[in-house]
Design brief:
The complex is a heterodimer of chains A (228) and B (273).
Chain A: E1 2-10, E2 16-25, E3 30-34, H1 41-48, E4 56-61, E5 64-65, H2 74-80, E6 81-84, H3 96-105, H4 111-125, H5 140-152, E7 158-162, H6 170-185, E8 189-193, H7 197-202, E9 206-211, E10 214-219
Parallel strand pairs in A: 3-8, 3-9, 6-7, 7-8
Antiparallel strand pairs in A: 1-2, 1-4, 4-5, 9-10
Helix pairs in contact in A: 3-4, 3-5, 4-5, 5-6
Chain B: H1 2-36, E1 38-43, H2 49-61, E2 65-71, H3 73-83, E3 101-106, H4 112-120, E4 125-129, H5 136-173, H6 176-184, H7 189-230, H8 240-270
Antiparallel strand pairs in B: 1-3, 1-4, 2-3
Helix pairs in contact in B: 1-5, 1-7, 1-8, 5-8, 7-8
Classes of the chains: A alpha/beta (228), B alpha+beta (273).
Chain lengths: 228, 273
């Protein structure tokens, strides 16, 4: 469960990226965040794993109260909230296996547990045959799938995806979308920021629309351009 | 980038190592010079054997006095005869113009004046002096050299720390993205820091190893060259073995320490959040 109450974020240069947003997302939902560039989508998503700290308001992510969270709890939060980025952000000198394993190593899991789980998620995303490849040997779509695998390795309750299909062609984008929906069906909350009106209209889910940092629309199974 | 770090480490460790060698050699030489410093005490010719013995004990009791060696005038004459081959026969026996002497070793060149004064104040002493060599100038020069070297060493160490610290920092800043990713994936600071610290230690070790190898080659090479090309006997220098091993261990430890410290400082700057 994610609860934002009067959340605002103003950067040091004065820009108000997120302006007084109040909303609630229940566990297991699939939510699109849409809006033009500069609307605050990225900032909104960065608030959820505390990549960015809100300047006012209260934000609760499951058992974590983000405005009051201790420094040493931060890694715990980051394991509960998996993140997928537009530019994949894989570690370039690690293989697919090692990249996914990294997320498990930081929790202190044993070698055996790590091996088991990594093979599990690789199978889930259909890349078991690319286990020893390096990121520069993989296509964009494959890299993103590895990134998603890494994000869900620790079985997070929430998955935040910031324009996950931004760098991908339409067919690959759809593949990624299907993986995200699979993950959502297994109980993970998925929050996806996107420009991709085709996807939003094809695969209908709750749509949160931002503009100038404000929430201007919250539609269940909405169209990309619909505003309520 | 790691190459740059190792290079920086090698250069600075080489500087530290060679400074240590220079310092140690200067120490050795000054010690040897000091040991040669003797006060020559001419004993009053009218003194009896008992008086001479008493004088010897009194001298030995003075602070900063080391060995006290008796040299009879006959022995002295014999010494001169070895140096000057002219016929000294006429001077033997009662014609010997030389005095019985005590050769007195003084510990610490700065104490010589005090000791000479005290000895001159004793009975049965004709005159006590330092012989014909005026060593005070040399002694001063040695003291000054020591201070200069110590100052240089301090400056070098500071430069070393800064150089290594900055080079390692550049290496780590270049991997900022990596560190960011690690944090976003939920790694604790200590988990992120660990590999970089190991890298720092390794850089320190490798740099020191290179430095010691070069130092050995240079030091040994200089000695060989001096011997073979210029026929200079270099046995007055500290022998290469085993000193180079001790110095090697020393800068090895220092290198690892600096490498680790540099890495920790740099990573900490990037983990501030």
């Amino acid at each position: 469960m994610i609860q934002l109450t009067n959340i605002s974020k103003q950067y040091d240069n004065g820009v108000v990226a997120v302006n007084d947003i109040t909303l609630r997302i229940e566990q297991g939902e699939f939510v699109y965040i849409v809006g033009p560039s500069g609307s605050g989508k990225s900032t909104f998503m960065k608030l959820l794993n505390l990549e960015v700290k809100a300047t006012s308001g209260s934000l609760t992510v499951d058992k974590f109260k983000l405005d009051r969270i201790k420094k040493r709890e931060l890694p715990m939060l980051r394991r509960e909230v998996g993140v997928v980025f537009q530019d994949f952000k894989l570690l370039p000198n690690l293989t697919s296996f090692e990249n996914i394993a990294y997320a498990l190593e930081v929790t202190g899991a044993s070698g055996k547990e790590i091996k088991k789980r990594v093979n599990e998620v690789l199978h889930l995303i259909g890349l078991s045959h690319k286990i020893h490849q390096y990121p520069d040997e993989l296509s964009g779509g494959e890299q993103q799938r590895i990134a998603i695998a890494r994000a869900i390795a620790n079985k997070p309750r929430i998955l935040v995806a910031d324009e996950p299909t931004g760098n991908l062609d339409p067919d690959t984008a759809m593949e990624i979308m299907e993986i995200l929906e699979d993950i959502n069906r297994m109980g993970t909350t998925v929050i996806m920021g996107t420009h991709n009106d085709y996807l939003v209209n094809q695969r209908k889910h709750r749509v949160l629309r931002l503009e100038h940092g404000r929430l201007i629309s919250d539609l269940y199974k909405g169209d990309y351009r619909e505003i309520n | 980038m790691t190459t740059a770090s190792i290079l920086a480490m090698t250069v600075t460790m080489f500087m530290v190592g060679s400074l240590v060698l220079v310092f140690a050699n200067v120490q050795k030489l000054t010690n040897e010079v000091e040991q040669e410093i003797q006060v020559r005490v001419n004993i009053d010719p009218v003194a009896s054997e008992a008086d001479e013995e008493k004088l010897g004990e009194e001298i030995a009791a003075i602070e900063f006095v080391g060995d006290v060696i008796y040299r009879s005038k006959e022995d002295e004459l014999a010494e001169y005869q070895e140096i000057i081959t002219e016929n000294f026969d006429e001077l033997e026996g009662d014609s010997n113009p030389l005095n019985n002497m005590y050769l007195v070793h003084v510990t610490g060149p700065q104490n010589i004046e005090i000791v000479v004064d005290k000895i001159n104040a004793l009975d049965n002493v004709l005159v006590a002096n330092l012989g014909s060599i005026d060593l005070s100038g040399l002694i001063n020069a040695i003291e000054v050299t020591r201070y200069v070297l110590a100052l240089l060493a301090a400056v070098f160490v500071v430069i070393a720390v800064l150089l290594i610290s900055n080079t390692i920092r550049l290496t780590i800043y270049a991997r900022q993205t990596e560190i960011e990713i690690m944090r976003l994936v939920g790694a604790k600071n200590s988990f992120i820091r660990a590999p970089f610290v190991y890298e720092g230690a390794t850089i320190g070790l490798i740099g020191s190893a290179f430095a010691i190898a070069v130092l050995y080659a240079v030091y040994q090479g200089l000695q060989n060259a001096a011997g073979e090309l210029f026929a200079i006997n270099t046995s007055f220098l500290i022998p290469t073995m085993p000193s180079i091993i001790f110095i090697g261990i020393g800068i090895g430890v220092l290198g690892i320490l600096l490498g680790v410290m540099g890495a920790r400082r740099s990573v900490r700057k990037l983990l501030v959040n």
